[in-house]
Amino acid sequence: MRTSIATVCLSGTLDEKLQAAAQAGFDGVEIFEQDLTVSPDSPEVIAARAADLGLSLDLFQPFRDFEGVDEAQFEANLRRAEAKFRLMGRLGMDTILLCSNVGTATIDDDEVVVEQLRRLGDLAERYDIDVAYEALAWGRYVSEYDRAWDLVRAADHPRIGTCLDSFHILSRGTDLSRIAEIPGEKIFFLQLADAPALSMDVLSWSRHHRVFPGEGSWDLTDFLARVTATGYAGPVSLEVFNDSFRQADTQRTAVDGLRSLRWLEANVAAAHVDSDQVRLDLQTLPQVAEPRGVDYIELDTDDLGALTRQIHQLGFRFVGFHRTKPHVQLWRRGQARIVVTESADIDPVSVDPDSAVPADATAAPAPASAVAPAPVSSGTHLRGIGFAVADADSAMERATLLQATEVPRDQAHDEEVLRGVFAPDGSEVFFGSGTGVDPTWTDEFGTVPDDRRSAIDHVNLAQPAHHYDEAVLFYTSLLALHAQVSNDVPSPSGLIRSQVMASSDGAIRMPLNLAPRSAESPETGSYPEHVAIACDDIFTAAATAVSRGLDFLPVPENYYEDLEARFDLAPELLQRLRENNILYDRDDVGEFLHFYTSTIGSVFFEMVERRGDYQGYGAPNAPVRLAAQHRRNAGH
Amino acid sequence: MRTSIATVCLSGTLDEKLQAAAQAGFDGVEIFEQDLTVSPDSPEVIAARAADLGLSLDLFQPFRDFEGVDEAQFEANLRRAEAKFRLMGRLGMDTILLCSNVGTATIDDDEVVVEQLRRLGDLAERYDIDVAYEALAWGRYVSEYDRAWDLVRAADHPRIGTCLDSFHILSRGTDLSRIAEIPGEKIFFLQLADAPALSMDVLSWSRHHRVFPGEGSWDLTDFLARVTATGYAGPVSLEVFNDSFRQADTQRTAVDGLRSLRWLEANVAAAHVDSDQVRLDLQTLPQVAEPRGVDYIELDTDDLGALTRQIHQLGFRFVGFHRTKPHVQLWRRGQARIVVTESADIDPVSVDPDSAVPADATAAPAPASAVAPAPVSSGTHLRGIGFAVADADSAMERATLLQATEVPRDQAHDEEVLRGVFAPDGSEVFFGSGTGVDPTWTDEFGTVPDDRRSAIDHVNLAQPAHHYDEAVLFYTSLLALHAQVSNDVPSPSGLIRSQVMASSDGAIRMPLNLAPRSAESPETGSYPEHVAIACDDIFTAAATAVSRGLDFLPVPENYYEDLEARFDLAPELLQRLRENNILYDRDDVGEFLHFYTSTIGSVFFEMVERRGDYQGYGAPNAPVRLAAQHRRNAGH
């Protein structure tokens, strides 16, 4: 499958966009005309640059407001088209996108439109150019893909075909069955975008909120499979207008985009499109199942005493030092394992985020997988998560094919090989094959039996601005996790966007949080992350913590009074909650009891007990936690 | 008129919100229940704190999902209500907001709802509490204000009244005429919010995009006048859910809010509400007319040589040094005047943004007008704008009553007194009474006659994040400017939100720009501002600039080729544009020709020639400028 990306998806100059697309591994690009207009490079220079980078220039776009006009206007439009055809000749391009008329159409008459398309085709023929006619969702008279196809079919001109764009089609909820009527060779171009489910005018939705496939709510696997079945053999191209992408790092966005296409391609390949028409060569990926659970959490710390004291207060037992790395310790509480690494001993240049991108980017492009992750914060912080997967080698191979950057790590010859990649937030994702209760890598630390029913319940990760959507696709495509509905949590310094990535059985639960960049905390990195431990008796856990002197995050009395008004709790239960700073939530299927610790560096802990079939995270209590943390930060 | 604000409008803790409301000068607050729930202070402590601050606690809110339910649910709801009534007693509060049922209503029957409201009234009576019933725009069965009023009237209970909220009413476009049917004493509360015209689901619109009166698109003067005419005598309160306000400085948002109410109050007072029912005591403000023009621009610079060279290249003439301040110079080009101040000579502590807020805020609150503006950037930057107004004293008095902070400035006894205030971006706004061609203050610099037809065409200001809406209200309320439609301009590092504030005759034009906080330029302050000079012959101006060696911002050849395709320009004109880096735009009523200079510090210049009745700013050319500036910043 040939991959392409519209330059409008990316930030930066046209030259930066071309470089980024090539480095990520795209086969071609769509040239968004404005990017060319504002560029100081001539069309010939741009064409040569693309050729040097190994990129084809797949589509010149957009050409607007052409058809359905009176003859005088039409003549002027033909002159405009001819100027663009000449320009395309200088670029060596052969396909132009024609959007259905939004601004100037006055004639809603198929015969007129068909005749005007045909005359455009005659002109295009002279310049050896193909015209891909697309129905914009907000076109004045032509806004549905099947109407555009009917017009193209009626024009019956070898230079006039149609362009299918998933945004314009899926945003209108049009019946997709007529895609099958279009012969693949009359689909001159295919553009893909996903989008979150939003209820707003389609123009704003399109211009600001499109995302890459897998980052929104649409079934693009089905869509691409339908187009594939027509025999379409051209590029599969991303056209995404997104406010965040426009601000984000060019190279990262390009890698994110290519990942979305590789993932989608493999999905379609796995769907076994049942047609002898299929002419796209679809590459597969090693399939991975959802992780069975969290194998371990790894924390780096420059305050080993405080951190290990706190996890001990939470009932963790010390297993041992790593047999060859004395700065690394393992702690466990049932099946919850925490690897603690004292960062003073870490080689400070074990990862150099800048070293991977060559200074002279005109030299041979670095492999896309070398894109630098965001640097993680110093001090005590969450370094990574080990996932228990069925086949670690397949998971790693899939991750690499999906452009993830491998974490460099030394292993002694007799140690278990744990391989992993960087997540978009700079944390590390490791693939462990650990089967059974105690994974074999734990032998390197010694043995401490622990049959308590306890495990990692969830890990709450802070995401850097502009890379939230990338994170959703990353965990979806690499780990087969599912994005749950996103919501906003009020904090004293703004709304926090929160979205849970989870496995079907709840063994993996990871809320991703995007904190506002307020005046108070301009660095998103200052938003703390946390590890939640599941236990089967929160009161026993709290009693242990109290006896060991845990610094609980305090819960205000007003909260318990409101709890009393909301739920008909037994006074004894209410009193026990109050005494232990335990929060409470309930829904139709169960209950949730939890308490929080103070924050060390950028990490804190939560102890949770789930009763019944409760699947949430105590969302109504999140503002209580955020306000308490805000007061502590402010030193109140 | 008694002013109030809902705590949900503001960032921070409840205590910080109360302090900010009091310091801004509000008479009272609405307590948003969640702010209380997450607070460590008991209701009694909060009540005492509010009393110390001189704030009344006007409304406890919200109480939800009460009416239209079956009897079992209703009993539970009454218990919930009673808990809240007891809590209100501890707070010393007497009015609660009841929102129409969104979640649990199953019975759409007026008789049931009326009976349930009446029974709630009986319970409220025992606690001496008034219930203000409000139709939420997305209420399940009750979503219109007049339906809520019909139910309240039918309940006919002294403890049951209605709450009018401009958002819920104006967002639905409901006919406002029935407001006049409601007796003022049955309106138990009044909440105001403005909103931009958006086409999205009303719940998201309400929860994220409300703004203060004067910052959106609705006619709240008319709305408030209608409510005033009913005899309503209670507080006029702001209830605004806004993502930016939640992140912004608490104190600044509070001042912005009070400004909106003072401005609205004066508008209603000036509208002479014609009813003997009016019981609100409406304060007026000194009226101001739109400014006649820009009197002068003041630039601070640490690179006097580069800056004065550039304005000389643009045809400015040196008028002289200020007669007592040798570090201040005046330059002019016709009626365009630029005061240049060499910043090395400026007292670096003439404004201390932090000094105005007392460290111990429990002491007597500082006057609201002492809120610190954002500090301006160093280097060459736009320090302020002098506006030619009809009555400078009235303008200054109005500005002060609207909570603006006066700029401290020394005047010698024989110098003209120019007074001014800080704008939200930290720049200075001065009110000059200068009548005739040469304002009298210019005598302090000497006299250089200059009858060229040239003036300040527009000034393009960068706005800090979170204070964009505040700026719109600031210029609207202080200077009687009008906000034009906002739009987004694509740049290589993201979309730039742009909104023009202008006077009706175009003598004042100020595009406000909000730049994205990209990875590349995390500080919004790095987005440059510019001063555009109007001339009547752009080619002569360009020729002068060329002969004097101006560093033009270069315009790419691709732009001129696109211009050729878009407009049928004479080849000679196109060639002259190309040779001088002049950009071109045209609409139905005129033409616009303009060129840009390089940037010095955070300022650059534009020379413009308007032909015919062209009123725009060459918006299609903005991406060309932004890309060229991006390349220069990146050193390409």
TrEMBL record, chains A, B:
Catalysed transformations (reactions): 3-dehydroshikimate = 3,4-dihydroxybenzoate + H2O
One Pfam short name: AP_endonuc_2
Catalytic EC class: lyase
Binding, Mg(2+): 458, 530, 606
Gene3D superfamilies: 2,3-Dihydroxybiphenyl 1,2-Dioxygenase, domain 1 (3.10.180.10), Divalent-metal-dependent TIM barrel enzymes (3.20.20.150)
Domain annotation VOC: ranges: 293-434, 455-598
GO molecular function, a single term: isomerase activity
Family as reported in the entry's similarity comment: Belongs to the bacterial two-domain DSD family.
Protein name listed in UniProt: 3-dehydroshikimate dehydratase
Organism: Brevibacterium spongiae
Taxonomy of the source species: Bacteria, Bacillati, Actinomycetota, Actinomycetes, Micrococcales
